[in-house]
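Suppose you are handed only these lines of text.
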Amino acid sequence: MTKTNSKQWGDKSRFYIPNEDARTVRAALNLLDASPRRPVFVGGSGMVLLDALSELPRLEEIAFVDISEFQVAYFKSLLLALKGCSTPSALTGWFSEIIYPQLHYHFSKGRGHEYPLEGVLQALKELFHIRFFFEEEPLDGIKPLLGRIRVHEQDIAAFLTEPARDYDFAYLSNVPDYLPQERLPDLFAACRLRGAPVYLLLTEACPDAGKVRAAWERVGYREHPATGDLTEQNSGLGAFNLKRVWNRRGRVVLLMPC
Ligand SMILES: C[S@@+](CC[C@H](N)C(=O)[O-])C[C@H]1O[C@@H](n2cnc3c(N)ncnc32)[C@H](O)[C@@H]1O
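From them, the structure of the protein bound to S-adenosylmethionine can be written out as follows.
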């Protein structure tokens, strides 16, 4: 079986903040019949996962999974910062002083894009709807749950298909855009076996969206009827009218076992 590794994804991609709309993910979690106890999230910055914690009242354990060594280390440093910061302004201060210079260097030197700090914080708040940087209640809500987070440096498809894994929700972001398509049937079958709803983004970067759809349909998933509403409210990656160099137009897909 072909494995995805961080080289295929692109070693040069670094997620210091998400490019996804956490509010849409929260809305999707609230549509589920049962609140997940053991959700799995593909990582990136990990901020979407952290922001979702408040929507998981029955949480036992939450898995952060990323194949990138950098993202795993970054997420661990974010967890430490969360433990150490008692207010949103302290957390924003940490981000501005420690993380932003790295982000700036990465994007300006490596990619020729300039992102001023104010613009980054504005996007974090208004496009990606990450609340714990700006509001006390979400930050206070996250802190007691930090001990339930498990961090895995692993390929998400490999993680989900390991027979011993116990999970009841899978957040794939736009990984299905890039995952070698022959790996999709096993991935969806593993999620379906556990009865886990799946959240994903399917964008114009996907070489064959029909094949991805066929793979989930074959194992018994259907799209949640509110999938169109989720797509309409999405203000991050996949949004139809969002003009940013990193955006790819597409749609949000929330899959329910039939
Ligand atoms: C798909 S997005 C997730 C963005 C994320 N939601 C956030 O809040 O930043 C990018 C991340 O997915 C990771 N990734 C891509 N393909 C993967 C795979 N097959 N398994 C695990 N992680 C993967 C990349 O390393 C990158 O960190």
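What can we learn from it? The chain has a mean pLDDT of 93. Strands lie at 39-42, 62-66, 149-153, 169-173, 198-203, 221-223, 250-257.
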